[in-house]
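Page 42, continued from yesterday. The earlier attempt failed because a stray header line got pasted into the input along with the sequence. Redoing it now with the clean sequence only.
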Amino acid sequence: QVQLVESGGGSVQPGGSLRLSCLASGNIFRIYTVAWYRQAPGKQRELVAIVTSGGSPNYADSVKGRFTISRDNAKNTVYLQMNSLKPEDTAVYYCNAYVNTVTTMTPRGYWGQGIQVTVSS
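This time it went through. Structure tokens are written below.
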């Protein structure tokens, strides 16, 4: 089985920065597309950033220029660097990854448990 665990969340003032990490563990053979989503109370979950194995990242317009998604394949970790944070960035952030295992070679999507990011004065 594959588990995704987010870390690095917390509270920060507007204009501050946070870096979220998502560590994938288990019988991983390869991680393909990775993404970050977020969901605020009463709102639909939205895609924040996404990147494929070798492609360029894509971002929601609301975070473009402020957030950066990256990955360290050797560590099975994906990051979301968040700069110039705004109150509207407050949400639970989820990492998502398409992964195949050593026994199941068809990739499937996995979700992390979510981590709170709060931006307020």
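Notes: Residues 13 and 120 are 5 Å apart (CA to CA).
Reminder to self: strip header lines before submitting.
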